[in-house]
Queue: 4 jobs
Job 1
Amino acid sequence: MTEYRSENPFGVRPDGTEPFSAQAGATSSPPHATGTLESGLLLEAFDAQLFREQSETVVARLEKHLADFSIRGLDLTDPAILVDAARALMTTEREQIAAYDENRLAAIVDLYIKTGIQVHSPGYMGRQFSGVVPLSGVIDFVSSVVNQPSSFYEAAQLPNVAEKIMAEELNAFIGWDPGSFAMVTTSGGSLANLTALLSARNRAFPGYWSEGGSALTGQLRPAIAVGDDVHYSVARAAGVLGIGDAQLVRLPLNERHQICVERARPVLDAAERRGLKVFCLVASAGTTPVGAFDPLDELAGLARERDLWLHVDGAHGASLLVSDELRHKLRGIEKVDSLTWDAHKMMFTPAPCTLLFYRNRENSLGAFRQQASYVFDAEPDIYTALDSGEKNFECTKRPMIMPLWTLWAVHGRALFAQKIEYLCRLAGDVHRILEGEPDFETLHHPEANILCFRYRPPGLRDEDVHDFQVEIRNRIKFEGNFFISKVNVAEVAALRVVMMNHQVTSEHFRMLLGEIRRAGQDLLRRTHHSR
Amino acid sequence: MTEYRSENPFGVRPDGTEPFSAQAGATSSPPHATGTLESGLLLEAFDAQLFREQSETVVARLEKHLADFSIRGLDLTDPAILVDAARALMTTEREQIAAYDENRLAAIVDLYIKTGIQVHSPGYMGRQFSGVVPLSGVIDFVSSVVNQPSSFYEAAQLPNVAEKIMAEELNAFIGWDPGSFAMVTTSGGSLANLTALLSARNRAFPGYWSEGGSALTGQLRPAIAVGDDVHYSVARAAGVLGIGDAQLVRLPLNERHQICVERARPVLDAAERRGLKVFCLVASAGTTPVGAFDPLDELAGLARERDLWLHVDGAHGASLLVSDELRHKLRGIEKVDSLTWDAHKMMFTPAPCTLLFYRNRENSLGAFRQQASYVFDAEPDIYTALDSGEKNFECTKRPMIMPLWTLWAVHGRALFAQKIEYLCRLAGDVHRILEGEPDFETLHHPEANILCFRYRPPGLRDEDVHDFQVEIRNRIKFEGNFFISKVNVAEVAALRVVMMNHQVTSEHFRMLLGEIRRAGQDLLRRTHHSR
């Protein structure tokens, strides 16, 4: 391998035990001499050996945590009690120099670990964040210490190179022309969706960036078409971007909770008659409530026929692309304009790690247009060619690609494909279990690893079904053995499991059903829900 | 301390060495049985003992890195060479199950560390990101593994409590009514500035969120007043929000690079005559190019008199509030409406950790308005009262407060105050050094820890000053002993040092001047810059 270290002409090489030894020459400093800094506190806080001791304290606790496969969900604690517990761990004589105390750190870490949702436990079936692959956390640790902001190549060389490599690796499953697509990382799916919509807005309305929305007087009003189950971040983006969240044109879904292309056309026509100019269509892969995949292939036809930018919010489901078994759910992905892909969901890395793909590189440059001499170079060269600062929202950006690239480098795609395939099979298995239980109602066939259902025991009044599910979900949460979520399906609450943990089996799900039944029966006895 | 663990009624407690032992009951699973998952790859990737070994590999390298006080800047590498080096570290038989190989991880970490800017070295004087306090990286490691998204209390209890505590702790230096201010964390200063401006926009134009900018037909056009040295993220926010970046009203600066309040009034009057409705004034504390602090006290008067929202971009300089010596730079801060504060700059934590403060809590709710049944609860309770999901842009948000709170809990504010005071004194010291060197030009008295200057040796033509500074900066970067930046001051490039590392002394700065002189003299000999 290439040797990257240049020679150090100063030959200043301390023995490694005396942090300030490099300041030896500081005696020639001017008044208020900077060489006279003799802070025991700073010396200690930046001491490398202390860093190792602190790391060992933390690693021992994390190892124990990762080795604990007991079934547990969440220990929900009254915030007031937790505030007191946290305050008790703080240096009380704040103005004094506090000597480092290992017990304090250990207590902080213990409290932190045990008050979180236990995402590595088989009791966790709740949301779309996951127990990370431990190695991805280890690399993220390196990022936290070496602190390389990755919007600019010179500040973070390996992260920028890793982004380029991961873009190529993942595009192999999307199928765009390797010479003309683009990818940037950004801080979460909401920001990726906003960035794509911004680029679409600027393309459709070239004066918008400079002149703003109020300059569009007399023109049709910009609007965005979405599936009715679109993630809230898309409506939020419309509000942020000056489009207006009332200018979302909501397309009806079919019985599989997908955008119904046939019924979409008249809705789009009606929007146009109301004076709206729909410039973008947002599809989901899959939706947040039930994990449905919109029919990208058909929607691409619709988008082409009406000159719409087709953006896919694949925050949750884009990862299915790496599986030979499941890739077909995103059939047509090569025809879309942009794609949001959260690696911190189904690629099992620490959050955030969101990848925003564009079919055409020029579109990736259309979101932001900026000059700032302290970060942007007027004359690009081979080093600035990899900069993403003009394409992503952030100025300082975490090198979020490193955990994903490292997992990919070490394990290849097999790790991801195997885990995703297991989780989706598991959702199918538990769906079959539910179909065999007459007191449970299934609401959809799981397309991925998300499943919604309701507990509807005999005696439950129809008008109480909604509140009953919410109360069961809260009861399960408080009991702390399992963590599940809830969502409205057709405006009535449902219980929701998201299978993110490969240590969950259908046997654990059966235990959950038992707990739901007990909670529900208890609620029926205590309240007036029963007829 | 309170015991938070609830009892586990299932008594499923594996011995901790066999990850899948909790699946013992899985034999009763349905077809495609989920209990039959027997992936060696997954078993290995989630093995707790392997996690410890990987952590030890990484900690040893980071310890060595932190103990190395040699003078070094950046080893700038051709991206093509680095791509090859990174590719060589990847599993080649990607479809096969790769056995974990410690050497591969070690090589990745070595390459990652050595290709970054050496922020913990005295050679680093370059930008506004810092060598983190090692303990903050250690806690960030916990965050990376336990993965608690912090927009919602139930998903991240301690981080939400830590946010509440840090809000109170830091507001003690701002001075707002503890009962009515608010703080949220968000992913970087750019996003915080956008969020504040969004809230200001929504307050001034109540229909904007729903109806969008094109509904403002016939009204005055929204505009934002800024100091001429405002960070590029504010202009970017105007473009994003549908205000239009041409609707920035740039206020002139005085000789100290601060907004000149007297000259601001006629500029605002002229903007009004052009049909602009200025609704917000953005001040800087300090500015990115030179670290100037706008006069907040006077600007608050101007804002009150014209009913403007006064937002302060204190990404860099708000941290000076924790120092008794330096707090006066932000005199008047208690009168502003909102404040962006990057802890990942002058509080020395991993990026991102941005705090956005609002004087009035209601304003913190004005940025976003959203319904989503899978995350937001219709009926708030004591647990959802701490949720920030309605106040910050992100849905999944890193628990970025934990490194800051932990440093504050362990060391108190003394650590921050001492380091910041040292860095600001150092900038003053090196300014005095430059004043004694006739071939260097000083451009401003440093208000904080940022200093811009030019090397102007005899024989340099005036028309070449700009290019000469850029070339020197690049030469220093390539030589790799020091890392500094450049910025345009009055449209002519200047060299810029940002003192972020307390291991830098004025002696190191003298070495840098020597290197600048050598580089400059060499350039003068080789090129046509000299008369």
Job 2
Amino acid sequence: MFLGKVIGTVWATKKSDTCANLRFLVVHPLNLKKAPSTDVVICADTLGAGPGETVICAYGHAARKAIHPDAPAELSIEAAVIGIVDRVDIDEDASDGKIT
Amino acid sequence: MFLGKVIGTVWATKKSDTCANLRFLVVHPLNLKKAPSTDVVICADTLGAGPGETVICAYGHAARKAIHPDAPAELSIEAAVIGIVDRVDIDEDASDGKIT
Amino acid sequence: MFLGKVIGTVWATKKSDTCANLRFLVVHPLNLKKAPSTDVVICADTLGAGPGETVICAYGHAARKAIHPDAPAELSIEAAVIGIVDRVDIDEDASDGKIT
Amino acid sequence: MFLGKVIGTVWATKKSDTCANLRFLVVHPLNLKKAPSTDVVICADTLGAGPGETVICAYGHAARKAIHPDAPAELSIEAAVIGIVDRVDIDEDASDGKIT
Amino acid sequence: MFLGKVIGTVWATKKSDTCANLRFLVVHPLNLKKAPSTDVVICADTLGAGPGETVICAYGHAARKAIHPDAPAELSIEAAVIGIVDRVDIDEDASDGKIT
């Protein structure tokens, strides 16, 4: 899964029936960089995440299971918000990034 | 899922039977950069997206479900247009890209 | 899916039984760059694609379905040629690469 | 799978029911670089990995199977710690990185 | 699938039961670059690949199928060696890397 910040919403009237009525957010993945990522991911959301909130997002089956727990395979989405983040505790010094 | 712009079409007469009769679009993924991405993704489409239109695309099961809802596992595709975008509202300032 | 050009073949006598007798091609993914990609993808092929031909390739279930439509889950491969390309029509000017 | 180092924890009260009660770690992927990666991956963990420990992580079905072996498809997660590393033996000189 | 060179081994005593008793190799992906990739992939192996050998590796279901053909879904791994390479024939001049 990845951490991201909600920065927008996508509207699409013409959509596959298998993802109709879903809310699609524009999520900006977060990293340890000084320079922000330039990519965004479109994520379905049923938790009500709003602009500026930090979210945990998942891909594939996990995304469908979060959005429609009873029949995940019925959905044609592959990314979703699975949690709204209260707090992240990190200690960047715990890793130097290199395999010893 | 990702946002992309339709920039072309691919023709292939010799194809797996499991993806015959499908329309394959060349989709250019969109980002927040000044410099455009140099990658493209080939996406199946049944919504009728045309050149210059912005689309939402999905990978894997989601792509097959969008194209053939009744029997997704019968298809040998793994990317598809799942929606044609009317409008994207983003506020880039809502994220500085860094995990706090 | 992605577009690639066939640039070679891989021979492996010692292989998982679940992918024996398959032909493995070295495929060079194509992009819009002036500088070519340095990555390659190994793809199973049953369409008879040859060196220098442009192909459409797919990952995961789609790849297995293209190679063995009757029992895709029996295969231990995750990339395959699903079509041999006759023509690609693109208009790079149709996209500036940026989310509006 | 990838190797990573645990550098933190994520707290999210508002979460999909299908991943409630799980512990989410911030994992920093390791590489052969001098410059560390700036990406992180959020991984579920039931092995009790702590800050500064090196872990093996897996995506997708593998992640769900590690966390909930009896009913992996019930989970809406797609990355997890599958092992805590005792030792890595590598000989970087065994590869020059180039296809011959 | 990708080509890689075996450069090491990972030992992990504390592991998910669903991947116990498996051998985990450190595999260095190969490319067409002069500069080698700095990433590595951890792959399960039952073919007996050793340091310095070139291997074909696969992700996801394909990896599990190669390692445990009778019950792939029981494993919590998502990358594996599926073949040991005897020879790679490539003609880099067959591709200029650009979509025509």
Job 3
Amino acid sequence: RASDSRSANLLLQSSFISPSSKGIYHFMPPLVKSLEKLTSLIDEKMKNICAQKVQMSMLSGKDIWSLSGRWDAFGKELITTNLGEAKHCLSPTHEEAVCKVLSQTFNKFLSYRHLPLRLYQTNTKFRNEPDPQRGLLRCREFLMNDLYTFDTTKKAAVETYNAVCNIYEEFFKELNIPVTKAQAGSGLIGGDFSHEYHILAGVGEDNIFICPDTGQAWNSECTNIEKKLDTLKQVDGIEVGHTFYLGKKYSKMFKTSFLTPDSKPVPCEMGCYGLGVTRILAACLEVLSTESGMRWPHKIAPYKVCLVLPKTGSKEFENGTAAVNNVFDKLQNYPLLKNDVIIDDTPKRSIGWKTKHANLIGYPLVIVFGKGLNSEEQYAEVIIQNPDQQLNFLLRSFIMQHFIFMYCA
Amino acid sequence: RASDSRSANLLLQSSFISPSSKGIYHFMPPLVKSLEKLTSLIDEKMKNICAQKVQMSMLSGKDIWSLSGRWDAFGKELITTNLGEAKHCLSPTHEEAVCKVLSQTFNKFLSYRHLPLRLYQTNTKFRNEPDPQRGLLRCREFLMNDLYTFDTTKKAAVETYNAVCNIYEEFFKELNIPVTKAQAGSGLIGGDFSHEYHILAGVGEDNIFICPDTGQAWNSECTNIEKKLDTLKQVDGIEVGHTFYLGKKYSKMFKTSFLTPDSKPVPCEMGCYGLGVTRILAACLEVLSTESGMRWPHKIAPYKVCLVLPKTGSKEFENGTAAVNNVFDKLQNYPLLKNDVIIDDTPKRSIGWKTKHANLIGYPLVIVFGKGLNSEEQYAEVIIQNPDQQLNFLLRSFIMQHFIFMYCA
């Protein structure tokens, strides 16, 4: 069976995470496929603002964290190691590191002409969560997308900030998942350019306050400041993104400067931005799934289509297999579905069992090859269990065009 | 300039790694682009043997390492952390973890019908190298591709082993880099199914012994066993891959069993396989580069084509820009070159400087728009600095077909 990549060893498709330690998980094949799609989607968005991809080391020397004062500020949430001559932690974030990279690599070369400069990565981050819970929603080892931006002036930095907010909103729109953008506390950071992106859900641990008239939202640090609490509606949210205008806080510390037209070094105006990649996936599943099974934003479903074969050895099996092979090849040639079609040929299982299983896993489209399959009269049942109307329309048109023998449920 | 993704902020394209700590590096944009290509190439090969991608946690609890006895065996090379209730290390390899995942996830469900089962990942590994050196050739945090295979019998495991060796050889062939497959010591592992893949290079730290008559090779553990040392040629190699037949060593420990047709649980026959991803990249650069600059296997060059613009403000600049825009758009539409073309429009630099710089970076194809550019008579100089004849032929044909005004150097 492993020699047939089309069925992709179905057993493995029913497992998404496997616990490693408390708050730490292994990601199983369908989850990896979904996370790679999510990462590609973010890559596309980052390309639109000309951000370039880096990969910062996960191990990070104490020196830069002492300089910023955050070795102590993070305290027990920092995971430290026994490595080498000096202390090292596992990076939960990279403001210090990215500033040091730029100053040590481009010292004296970085000019106003090179700005705006935008660097990002999507990789594993670490945080010693005292109370990890709810699977990927709050864990100790997680995937995060972090973006660091460098500008010449505050005005330019605000333009960058707005450009990032725009691509964040586009990104969530493509996932077809509603988010609430809430003004966040400025705290130690300064300015009023900090916002959080929340997916509203009962399991959310953050309190968001929304003005029923304007739709504006604030996190709990911000309310009462601008609005009276009793006029606002309180909801629970899962924080999935955060944007900060940082000013010169880190660029001054690490001498991350650019040269002005008259060759004077000036610290860059910075912003930093984060998307919780594994958390976004978990939050989407939390919000979209129903009692009958998991439901995925179709752009990041591990597979878009599942073809269900008749029971091995049954009277429909032979014709069903021929039909599945035909449909599989046709669908694979359709760019939207390349590597996105899987065949359920689990031995010994009935069509009913396989259909129910496909429904549990939440493939956006399930095609069941079962009833009255013979050479004269072939038809299959098409089940669309996907909330996205656009994809449904596309799939229906495609099916009608290529497989007139099918019945769309 | 950041608003123009085509020039991709050229300054950033001249930096590949940036030191973080001793033996630990940040990967800069062109290196990330190259590593992503390398990872995709491996993904393709893994797909050919129906291996499925997982992502195992980097933090790993002491319990599984104590069970195998490798917590002490790795000793000081294991990087440990302060995390949580029990001790955790940063995984240098995942035999224990993958066995535990399978037994805890599929306990009682894994049957002979599900085998062969092949799981792989490409992610960051950690090892406390006592003497990290030569950049990415020997470091403490590195990218590695690791594959774990599970079969019903030794015969089936050997078939899997040979299939993996075949895709490894295809992989190196696609990189156009010669490797030597050397028989490695069986040591504690058992059987004679262990081989190393070496890129031969003066800087290599491993001694390989080659039989001049047959071309067979052995690593230093193996010689004298089968051949007399004085009949063999000794060469230096960089170990870039390793394949092991493991038998039931780990599957017995972790009760990673499958059910036979008569429902008897039997430990799986295992293999494990590794490709040093960052090391392969470094070794290729080490072997291919010349005194005039870096040279890449063209499939993993960060960009395949660099378009060199005339100096800003020069008399050729305006027409040159129009020509570059035209060529850029045409090349981008060519699937082979999508996202693989970059424009050097560095301000204040002459064509000579830019051409030399492009040569240093080693773009496989450089097109210089410089001489006699006017509306009547446009031509550009094409420099092909790539060792791959196949790509050269393809590029030449393409250029001849689309840009008859060009002169191929």
Job 4
Amino acid sequence: MPFTAPVAEQKFVLQHIAHIADLGVDDDILDAVLEGAGAFAEGEWAPLARAGDTAGPTWTDAGVKMPKGYGAAYKAYVEGGWGTIGSPEGFGGQGMPFVLAAAVLETLGAANMGFALAPTLTVGAIEALLHHGSPEQQALYLPKLSTGEWTGTMNLTEPQAGSDVGALRSRAVPRGDGTYAIQGTKIFISFGDHDMADNIVHLVLARTPDAPAGTKGLSLFLVPKYRLDADGNPGEPNDIRVVSIEHKMGLHASPTCVLSFGDNGDCVGELIGPEFGGIRAMFTMMNNARLNVGLQGVQVAEAATQRAVAYARDRMQGARAGAGVAIVEHPDVRRMLLRMKAQTMAARALVYYACGQVDRANAGDAEARALLDLLTPLAKAHGTDIGCEVASIGVQVHGGMGYIEETGAAQHYRDARITPIYEGTNGIQAADLVGRKLALAPGLIARMQGEVEDAGLRALVEACGEVGGVLATAAQDDRLAASYPFLTMFSVAVCGWLMEQQGRIADAGETPFLKLKAAACRFYVAQIVPEALGLKAAALASAEMLYAVDAETLAA
Amino acid sequence: MPFTAPVAEQKFVLQHIAHIADLGVDDDILDAVLEGAGAFAEGEWAPLARAGDTAGPTWTDAGVKMPKGYGAAYKAYVEGGWGTIGSPEGFGGQGMPFVLAAAVLETLGAANMGFALAPTLTVGAIEALLHHGSPEQQALYLPKLSTGEWTGTMNLTEPQAGSDVGALRSRAVPRGDGTYAIQGTKIFISFGDHDMADNIVHLVLARTPDAPAGTKGLSLFLVPKYRLDADGNPGEPNDIRVVSIEHKMGLHASPTCVLSFGDNGDCVGELIGPEFGGIRAMFTMMNNARLNVGLQGVQVAEAATQRAVAYARDRMQGARAGAGVAIVEHPDVRRMLLRMKAQTMAARALVYYACGQVDRANAGDAEARALLDLLTPLAKAHGTDIGCEVASIGVQVHGGMGYIEETGAAQHYRDARITPIYEGTNGIQAADLVGRKLALAPGLIARMQGEVEDAGLRALVEACGEVGGVLATAAQDDRLAASYPFLTMFSVAVCGWLMEQQGRIADAGETPFLKLKAAACRFYVAQIVPEALGLKAAALASAEMLYAVDAETLAA
């Protein structure tokens, strides 16, 4: 089934939810970027998605080899300038809004989710260097990262330190010339090695000698795969070894590496930002990366939905009105498809809305910064939860064929499942919401209360206000116990608010897209919003219920 | 992580929900069967689960070869008499209740889900022959099927006929000697071929010449892999070709075959029951098979939960109270684990409760027959929905390790996903509920109303009564549009009722198991029941919303 970029939908959300005109992007540019990225992704990246899943990258002594076609398709991406959309103007980028770059990334990832992780990670490296790098580092690295000629990675996780980055042990020892000798093993490094780019810029969290324990002792280092020569070109290989690539359930096109730095004591890195500034720099990378992972939920939901709709229109089964009909005509299949559409649109609206705040915050808007902080855990966690749900419904729509790998629905289901885990598990997002962001919620809730029209949606928004108020003064464990149900309620409330807004605009339209938009928005408010109200009891329950038995008894 | 059969829990549910004492099974027998099956499954079947997933069966010219160890483990199953538990006494079986056989099957499947599909399918063949076979057929086939020396298959699906069995085209032409020449291609045949048993008894739905169109023209045929010789032993191979085995997302230990019958015009089958009695015989097989698929939801949920609890107790991460602690102590991880426990127990209670009605109905209890008819779609659909949900939470509890295949959590997630699809998709179950079973609901709802205590649970039960009443007089499309949300609401109400009953009993206990049981029941009623009430709006929505746009617009 050929992938088609959802240009009309993306444009609608960029215009009416992200208000991209206010960010200086006019309709002509918008059309050119969305249509161009769509045509590129449809033609060059989507056809490689299945090969990425089945063949996948391979580990060799000489490094990771990508499957056939990926090198050329990546080169076409660089040459087409698709990496430069949101990159900084002073460094070879086009300086367009982050939210527009997100739309382009969505298209690439919907076409080929695993592949699109390479540019996604590169964005994180660019952000870190832009905000924390020295002018020299920026001049040397940003132009190549902007175009995608070089790719970036984030090296956080170690075997004993996953969500708990404060526990990591990698070392960075001054070499006396301003550089550091890096030593340690990092796991789960997406695109930690590959053969598509001239260099790979690893951003590595490590500890300097005598650093304090925990997160405050972390520093961030720039560790290139190839050290730069006097002209700034990749020269001698650094002392980095690809130990292995993981056997993952999905996202096979993305090589997930175990990297060993400094086995021979000769891995050279440079500090990014001040010593002990690692955790702050990490959050710079991570916050936007979290939005881009939420965006992966949109990617996989879009791809799964397109595939399911096409199958359901094609597959004849059962008799309605006497003759065989396509399964799309069966009410419960309709329900599944409309749910897929509505959830995908809701996730897109939520993520684009949050991404639009990045641009406003970057321009100095403090209110947008606060809103972004509040929306980031919602976009990451709920966007990815939707991706998993929609991919699962997609398998179901296909019936038995959905379980056969050749059909492609199963790949979406497998690909999607990592997204609630990485870049901070969704549980961590929920903890972030109730731990650091609760004070930011009342403003948004008040605004939604003033705008929502549907009675059920109003009830949900009010319930969010009530629960948020209770949690604000609750004991920490009670807050954490309620965090996930509250995150889901609140996310659905925000999505409902955004969907209702879109529905009002779409109701006036006559094009097939606007009719579909209106129907999906109506479905969302009528059927999905009330479900979230069912979470209120859990969001008000205390931790006591969870600790009624101890850990050992839990295994009884 | 070694699998441990949940004997205390199984015994509790068999005693207090299935009331197995009333079925003539005393405590000594119960203990002996549950503990014996547990020890067997733990020792012989569980250790092969991963090899079944990674190596899997292979197609060869000479038929399907099972992975290393499976032949011996299957032989041990036959020799241990584990297949005979529920098989009819007159034919080599022990004639114990169906619900006890289900508990044994649960243990086998929790240890090795794909493998356990072989006995699961054999149960269906036994049921069909017992109810529709001739005395000669019963005498020839039932003893070997009872022990498992021969296995059974169900051959329904064809490429153009999945859920719509009326569309199938396989032919059966009288050969003049009372037998039929079978011709046709069947797909998705679980254990359609393998090398573990001396014979395979295929039950094949096909059309005789001049049969009417649709389901009423179907007849059921017994088509052995090897024709029986004069002594009733497997002799000449029948004309059945294994065309291929499917590349499935999971359940790899079970070879899913494409079978071609009668390529050389020499495939001999016998009619089971009367000509055109195929659909009735199919439902005999299918109804109990549906319960056993609901039971697969329990299997995978149990296995995933055990794995997640063990991981969470072992994995140190993050600091609570200053020192590193196992992640099981984090509130949101606790919430996930308790939810897994509660959902698994709820699915088990629902499925066992339904299975207990099989035994009562077989003994002539008309009320139990009606209850069974009502509960079957709930047990199948909601049991498998729970299996998928719990397996997904299991991946999440593992964090990044959950996405790595070696950990095992991902296998559960992949294995589980077929269960909402086969033996009638869960959408078909929902259609069955609102199409044929609605009139049976008020009796159960009234009974629940008289018994439930929790206010939220009472509200849910009452909502089920209200929605059921509305649907009973609704137009067909409106009923179908609401079918799935209603099925879920109703299933959770029944589970809530069964969990509350168990909670009352467990509250009086002091053992770790009873404390856990009480905590899980409390969690279920307090947190999961209210969620289901959130489905009421969708269960009362008409089909109009789903057809607001046509199929073409859905692809806009």
